[in-house]
Amino acid sequence: MQEKLIPMAYHRQLNAVPTVPTALESPTGFVADTLARPLQELRISLTDRCNFRCVYCMPEESFGKDRIFLPRNSLLSFEEITRIARIFVAHGVQKIRLTGGEPLLRKHIENLIGLLAQLKTPDGRNLELTLTTNGSLLAKKAQSLKDAGLNRVTVSLDSLDDATFKRMNGVDFPVSDVLHGLDVAHAAGLGPIKVNMVVKVGMNDQEIVPMARYFKGSPFILRFIEYMDVGVSNNWKMDEVIPSSEVIRRIAAHMPLEEIEANRKGETAGRWRYQDDSGEIGVISSVTQAFCHDCVRARLSTEGILYTCLFAAGGHDLRALMRDGKTDQEISTAVAHLWRSRADRYSELRSTTTKGMERAVKKIEMSYIGG
Ligand code: SAM
Ligand code: SF4
Ligand code: SF4
After folding, report:
1. Ligand 1 midpoint to CA 101 (Å)
2. CA-to-CA dists, residue 143 to 132, 152, 191, 353, angstroms
3. Does the C-beta of 286 come closer than 6 Å to ligand 1?
4. CA 316 centroid distance within chain
5. Scanning 85, 134, 237, 309, which has the fewest C-beta atoms within 10 Å of its C-beta?
């Protein structure tokens, strides 16, 4: 029988409550870490639950019926999320991405979006508010998300072939429903929409060229993601990763491509355009060409733990600060202190030095920390 897993085991003894430095630093204002990377983006996980069981994220063997997810009262409330987001925005965050787990499973998510959409950057601009989803509930939700103030969505889709997609999502979910969700989201004005495809050797690498062909010339920007060693459940192996260079080689053999400039510093995807002017694709090479040097993202887990790296072994419990009655100023000072102390560059170290490091480090599951 499968061992029961208690959510706290993800991070037990790791979620240290950050100390609040007293009047050491300015509680608001832009902050940069020890490698001069500014704090610009916040990813917020709204739930650790998901209606899919993707083989690379929440495989059924580890996330079966016996899996115990976080209890409702440990989740941050919408007010708590908004309070933390406001503090991060005062420190320079311009973009917030809602994720999970599957964020559209969080009840009344539109109310949260409505609250976040009211936040302004210190110079009075609106935030960029986006959400990553598996697309299963998108057709139903797209219009209400847009009406609440969401700017864009990113949709995950690993194959156009039903059998392959069903094998990868683990719950027999059909491709056609995700494609319908994409169309409805596009019509609702949630674009430009990016489509994320995680490529895993022997699972869906035969789908690289068909996916490229399908989305070429469409309003959707397809991005190929290298399969990453996040968490421990997926039993990641380096030889299951298709390097982005190989993805580009395979597509360019049929549809010539050329590399183009990033839209902005810190962008995770490398950009390539079709030479016949029919759009572009992106490649996210987290394994073979790590981009830690430009990483400006903080992550807030479902229960309010701040992680400064996707691969961090431990986080900092902001929920405890809030529920202990700390003031905005005290929490803000703690956040500034944590970001200024940040030195994370896991993927660069994995790529350049330590073979086998992916097994040596205790890691948090993607569905908990937020992808
Ligand atoms: N459930 C939503 C979804 O699938 O879009 C949001 C959460 S999911 C964890 C966020 C993104 O992480 C998805 O695009 C997913 O494909 C990607 N992802 C999950 N596990 C991954 C892995 N091991 N390597 C690379 N990408 C991964
Ligand atoms: Fe769910 Fe997204 Fe993870 Fe797939 S990648 S199991 S859809 S959280
Ligand atoms: Fe950022 Fe950590 Fe990923 Fe490097 S490994 S890009 S620091 S999240």
Report:
1. 9
2. 16, 12, 12, 47
3. no
4. 18
5. 237
Q: What is the largest CA-CA distance in the chain?
A: 61
User: Counting atoms of ligand 3 from 1, which one is nearest the CA of 310?
Assistant: 8
Is the distance from the beta carbon of residue 364 to the nearest atom of ligand 1 less than 6 Å? Answer: no
Per-residue CA distances from 48 to 53, 100, 101, 239 (Å)? 12, 6, 5, 28
- Alpha helices by DSSP H, listed for 78-230, are 78-90, 109-116, 138-148, 162-169, 175-188, 208-215
- What tokens were used for 201? 């050797």
Note the pLDDT of residue 160: 98
What is this structure's pTM?
0.92
Rounded distance between C-alpha atoms, residue 341 and residue 103, angstroms: 30
Task: Say if ligand 1 is within 6 A of residue 371 CB.
Answer: yes
Q: What is the distance of C-alpha 1 from the center of its chain? A: 32
Q: For residues 115 and 307, what is the distance between their CA atoms, to the nearest angstrom?
A: 23
Residues 6+ apart with CB under 8 A from 34: 340, 341, 342, 343
Q: What is the pLDDT of residue 26?
A: 55
Query: According to CATH, what is the number of the domain 2-369?
Result: 3.20.20.70
Q: Is 82 a pocket residue for ligand 2 (Cβ < 6 Å)? A: no
Give domain limits for the chain: 2-369
Give the H/E segment covering residue 331: helix 328-340
Please identify every stretch of the chain with a pLDDT value under 70, giving residue numbers as ranges: 1-17, 19-28, 351-362
Among the listed residues 358, 338, 339, the one whose alpha carbon sits nearest the alpha carbon of residue 350: 358
Specify the pLDDT at position 5.
38
Q: Which atom of ligand 3 is nearest to the CA of 350?
A: 5
Q: How many CB atoms lie within 10 A of CB 272?
A: 20
d(CA 364, CA 105): 21
What pLDDT is stored for residue 207 in this prediction?
A: 98
Q: Is the C-beta atom of 58 inside 6 A of ligand 2?
A: yes
Report which bound ligand comes closest to the CA of 48: 2
How far apart CA 123 and CA 94 sit, in angstroms, is 11
- Separation of alpha carbons 190 and 235, rounded Å: 35
Ligand 3 pocket at CB < 6 A: 290-292, 295, 309-311, 344-347
Ligand 1 proximity of 153 Cβ (cutoff 6 Å): no
